[in-house]
Amino acid sequence: MDELVIAGKKFSSRLFIGTGKFASNEIMAKAIEASGTQIVTVALRRVDIDNPQDEFLAAIDRDKYLLLPNTSGARDAAEAMRLARLARAATGINWLKLEVTPDPYYLLPDPVETLKAAEGLIKEGFVVLPYINADPILAKRLEDIGTATVMPLASPIGSNQGLKARASLEIIISQSNVPVVVDAGLGLPSHAADAMEMGADAVLVNTAIATAAEPVKMAIAFKQAVEAGRLAYNAGAPARSRTAQPSSPLTGFLTDR
Amino acid sequence: MNTAGTTKSLHDIGKKLAAVGLDGNGNWQEILQNFKPADVERALSQPVGLYSLNKLAALVSPAAEDYLEQMARLAHQLTLQRFGRIIQLYAPLYLSNHCINSCLYCGYSTASKCERTRLSLEEALEEAEVIASEGFRHILLVSSEDKDFITVDYLAKFAKNLSSKFSSISIEVYPMSREQYAKLYQAGIDGVTLYQETYNRKAYAYFHPAGPKADYNERLAAHDRTAQAGMRRLGVGVLLGLSDWRIETLALAEHAHYLMKRYWQSQVSFSLPRICTAYNVSINYKYLLSNSNFVQMMLALRLCFADAGIVISTRERPELRDRLVRLGVTRMSAGSKTSPGGYTGKTEAVKQFEIDDRRTPAEVAAMIKSQGFEAVWKDWDAAFGPD
Questions:
Q1: Active-site residue among A9, A21, A97, A116?
Q2: pTM above the 0.95 mark?
Q3: Paired strand residues for A215
Q4: CATH at B27
Q5: CA-closest candidate to residue B248, choices B226, B214, B274, B276
Q6: Contact B307 A106 (CB under 8 A)
Q7: CATH for A4-235?
Q8: I want to staple A117 with a disulfide (CB 3.0 to 4.6 A). Which of A77, B61, B254, B282 is the partner?
Q9: What is the pLDDT of residue B2?
């Protein structure tokens, strides 16, 4: 597969894996392995980031995977920034999946605080991958201030509903100059393939794999779906149009062409 | 800080409960009896995890008793999807059993001749160290209404001492002012558990004859203040056994829904404590719940609140707790000691109530694992919160 480049770093896999909700660290590690991913995101709230013995962290091989800390649970920019700094101080990792999710029920990202935090963190030298609603203007605003990607949601996190935000995602993808990672809401491999066919640069999957009856199998399914979707995109999928296009309904009479 | 709800004055929860007849003055017993299987089926065909009073009423009605398996399947699936294969563990730390209230069901009431114990900050810290050494990172500080000793300053100081050991500190003490809660939030306490005990005004008056807790309205309004002070975790609950559980569930849900809508940045958790044997208390409770009733209540709440926490304490027996892992529970206490000084064993204080699950935290974690779930000790970080 063609390489994905984020902030100058090259990746051959276009599947990010989230690490919540797994039944055990062992199953998580196996699913990560099977997915072929190279980027694994970890909620700072779940780990002792400064403890090398932390069982959760120990289950993720840092030589094989880029560990992408996330600030899930942060209520505002100040909290997200504080967590980011602590994580960097403890691990040296300056990549951050920025999540500002003040609403504890749907965990939807706060656009105002996300922009504010991104701005501050970029000034402090972080590589920021912000989780956002599928808001094309916010995506451009974030790109303008220098985020490494944008990570719009496909549908509310954990909902497994697929590309409910399709119309806005299409706009984001068509306008973006930074990689677009479709994050949250992908419940089936076909959803992931759909996003990749649409032109997303990568996708992030967690719940669909972690809560599947067989997470390892599901991880493989997502791996293949992402690869297929990307291949189809590169192959020049048939034009993405909202209307059917009969061959020549209006000009078919021009038989003398 | 969470300022939602402070800018506009909405109707008050007490008025709301009165308006729908859920403070004991309605005819809900009759309404609930009249639900038919078709009503239950209609409720079950509605979007899973969303609340309406009528839907919940159908699910707690006697007619729904024949649908427990179906409810359980839906609740299991929904909880799996929203929370994953995890159960978060916490431990309660009892600080004092001195009390100025007279709750008839409690071993710590003023009428009780039990020996009283208060932990100094040093003693409390020793207890917390035992809890931390067992693996816990979420702690609940519990005290009876002992305002002279367990002061806001005491709790704030203690919380600061705990911040290096625990990721999340909650309290279950007595109602406070918004300013007091704000002070505790600043000190690193991010959750408040406060049960109304019963939403039925008559039962409330009967069981709480004297002391500040006799004021139903004051207690009912407390959670508005906890949320306004910025608290992220609001624990609501009823003491099951004081009044008709079906009606209590509806009132509890109305209260939770009110809090969720108004304070959208705080997460509401349901606790379902069933009344236990307490020191020197002999009451024949009229409204005790069977296990089926209890499970029905839990499932009904889950099917109406997809993302609410559901907390089960060690009041319940191990056999039941093991089963509940798959039925919508998100948080469990383990290895609990329900008397001040219970963890270090230095004092011989009377327990607030007898616990039924005496397994160690490690044993409970192993049980959770054996069911294909992960026991999560840390799901928050002390770095959250105010500067």
A1: A97
A2: no
A3: none
A4: 3.20.20.70
A5: B274
A6: yes
A7: 3.20.20.70
A8: A77
A9: 43
